[in-house]
Amino acid sequence: MTRMQREEWQDIVRDVDWAFAYADDEAVFPEWQSGTGSVPREAWKDWEEGYKITYPEYVAVQREKETSVFAVKAALQRSKVFDDLDEGWKSTAKAHFGATSLIEYIGMIGELRMARFGLNGGWRNMAVMGALDEIRHAQISLAFAHEFVPKDPQYDWALKAYQTNNWAIIAARRLLDGITCDANVVDVAIQLPLIFETGFTNLQFVGMAADALASGDINFANMISSIQTDEARHAQQGGPTIEILMKHDPARAQWVADKMFWLTGRVFAILTGPAMDYYTPLAHRKQSYKEFMEEWIITQYMRTLNDYGLKKPWYWDQFLENLETTHHALHLGVWFTRPTVWWKPQAGVSRAERAWLNQKYPHWEELYGEYWDVITHNINRGEMASTLPETLPWICNTCQLPICTHTSSPDGKWRVRNFAHTHDGRQHHFCSDVCRTIWQEDHDTLHMKTMVERLLAGDVQPPDIPGLLGYMGITPDVAGDDAYGYKWAAEYLPGKAAE
Amino acid sequence: MENAVGPVLRMCDEVEFIIRAIEDDNPDGVVEVVDRGAYVRVQMPGFMRLTQVSLERHLGSTFKLYQLEGMMASFAGRITTSSDQIVWKLNATGKTG
Lengths: 499, 97
What we know:
The structure holds 2 protein chains of 2 kinds.
Chain A: H1 6-14, H2 25-28, H3 31-34, H4 55-77, H5 81-84, H6 87-100, H7 103-117, H8 121-146, H9 157-160, H10 167-181, H11 185-214, H12 218-234, H13 238-248, H14 250-279, H15 289-307, H16 316-322, H17 326-336, H18 351-360, H19 364-380, E1 406-407, E2 415-416, E3 419-423, E4 426-430, H20 433-446, H21 451-456, H22 465-471
Helix pairs in contact in A: 4-12, 6-14, 7-8, 7-10, 7-11, 8-12, 10-14, 11-12, 11-13, 11-14, 11-15, 13-14, 14-17
Chain B: E1 4-10, H1 15-25, E2 32-35, E3 39-45, E4 47-51, H2 52-59, E5 72-76, E6 78-81, E7 85-89
Helix pairs in contact in B: 1-2
């Protein structure tokens, strides 16, 4: 029997809007959830996804994906591949598992909200499949990490991280809560599918797969790129939403996109930047973080945003400038505060690695070299206490990351500037004028206490490093340390310089 | 490549066959392939199509267009899917094939 083409019947099941007889539209789609704003309610009838799939097709494809990924996992389970992986690379995987496994769960909440409050039946259907996708991503990430827990307890943070108040998780949770939970679903469709998933997850889940495969982590490369095949589909909820918003309220579209592009970029700078430029073994780096950003974000992604009529963000020049600096400063901070993280940061500053960094980032030595020189000197003198933190760095009130943004000064030196703002008699601190502007506009929905504010408020007891580690859920068996046990510093010992 | 559009394929056995199908479906343009190991960019400026007919020719009659999703980790441009073909394009270029 010849089957009907999908186009001949799909609207019957995807276009399920009807006129309500017993309830007001506002009661079914309340403004605070659905968020049409100044866009006429009827305008959402034009919402149409370009990427169409039926539920039977969805189930068939997802089954194939799962079968394929778990077949590779089963085959490698009996091999020694994991034991042979570089310790620096493993930290990329451990940081990823902890930071993203349950982000997928938060993503599911955003999808479910769109599945309920989206203003078009086709949108709601697409979001249902998006929610199922995110459940898959959380489960597959936890399953893959769980295999390694008996070998290394840091993998247990795939499940544990989001149950803690670890500083890195506060930053990630603040971003994802802001994307999926605080906003109405029109803004969610811009923030989650269009900005987070169409843009930055490509970097972490496809770009990173290139480094993973080169580093021999076939399992991880296979898992993350499989996850992104789901994202490539359900991220298409963003396109039709931005088209309608650009037609009726372009200022809102631009602001929501600009705001979340910046905030998402900050978190990926600390998650993906060090992984690509420091943790991945030098011989296996396919490109630098900046080059991956140029490929995925500056070229591919910005071209798409431009095609929807969006302009470059107001801080675009600053964003490009920060690609040379921000993740290097954040890496320096993560390595210095290594007992506070659930992975082992690879310093990545051997002579060969520094040469590579200077080739990729012409100002690296000038901006960061002397700090690593001091750290290396202290390691080689056995003064390890000088390489460890005694307190917290200042944390940005918007992005929740350490304030370490490079700003140029007349003498060419790196200056960390604090961008302050007083509100209701209280001073807040920001890493940049962009984070300060976002906070000024959105502080009611985005504000969350920083780790420093928690310390000063007495939430952390005792108010010292052991107290902070306890507050952050870090136990001695998972506290981070240098990936290579500081062996890299030996080549800088006196007498070795000429070699 | 200016205004590149097209799929980014993850590592799988079918990559070469999909590239051949794309070349068949876009005879008037040059299909550029960028291989980064774990992923392969297949791209053309402004417009690209992939049809069910070409996929069947290279991957067998049981392969359906929607199954491409399992291999496509990302794509450049805007996408439109139907039972017969997938199109990637940028509206700004005005190209319609």
